[in-house]
Amino acid sequence: MTAQAATGNAEDQGWATIPDEPFETQGSRRRAQLVKIAASLIVTGGASAVSHASVAELAGVGRTAVYRYFPTREDILAAVLEAYSELHGQLLTNEEVAAGILGLAASSRKRLPEATRTVGERLWDEHDWNPDALKLRLAMCILVRDYELMAQLAEVAPRLVEDLDHQFLHPLRELGLTELERRVVTDAVVSAHYHAAVAVLKGEIDRDQAADLAMRMNFAAVHAFLD
After folding, report:
1. Count of CB atoms within 10 A of residue 18's CB?
2. Which of 49, 86, 108, 161 fits a 20 to 30 Å CA distance from 144?
3. Where are the alpha helices (DSSP H) in the chain?
4. Which residue ranges of the chain lie beneath pLDDT 70?
5. 164: Cβ–Cβ under 8 A, 6 or more apart, which residues?
6. pTM of the model
7. H or E stretch including 18?
8. Hey, how many other C-beta atoms are within 10 angstroms of the C-beta on 126?
9. Can you give the pLDDT at residue 52?
10. Looking at residue 208, what is its pLDDT?
11. Distance CA 41, CA 62 (A)
């Protein structure tokens, strides 16, 4: 039997086909799929709904496949935040977000500084306007509002917490807000983004309305402690 004939028989049986993509690419796709599933679980059942077993079941793989990418449950949750951070990072730098937050202090209801307006527009960029991205935003909002969980995730992915501090909390400190006030503002802003994304997914509001809702809440939350 020739080598060509042997290869042909194997291909006919469907078990010797050489993958078109390198294993690294296949691994990246699998990891992204698992993160997407974890985000959906967070949206429908909260962070407690995420486990190696639940992600594996929805992915149609064994638990060991999930453990291969994420050794702990915290690694899975951190990966969801990292995915949102990467998407967010394509639209805005940490410095631009911080400048937008600081700009709220000098804004009015009818007039926003360019830096603040830029943040509002890019956070709701039209390229980010799809169900998967919106679910990822919802998952981020749910996780960020859980301070105890975020403290645990800080040990797994400290850079995520550092980015959040640089983008949002540090500017609020510069504006003179106390720790309690910063928490109140953070809760209000994240809540606005959450409800706006939910309304969008339900078809109740469009992108411009979502961006306007989020920006008005940002303004109100910050000025509640500045005026």
Report:
1. 6
2. 108
3. 3-13, 23-45, 52-59, 63-69, 73-89, 94-103, 114-123, 131-144, 147-156, 158-164, 170-174, 179-201, 207-223
4. 1-24, 127-128, 227
5. 144
6. 0.81
7. none
8. 8
9. 97
10. 87
11. 17
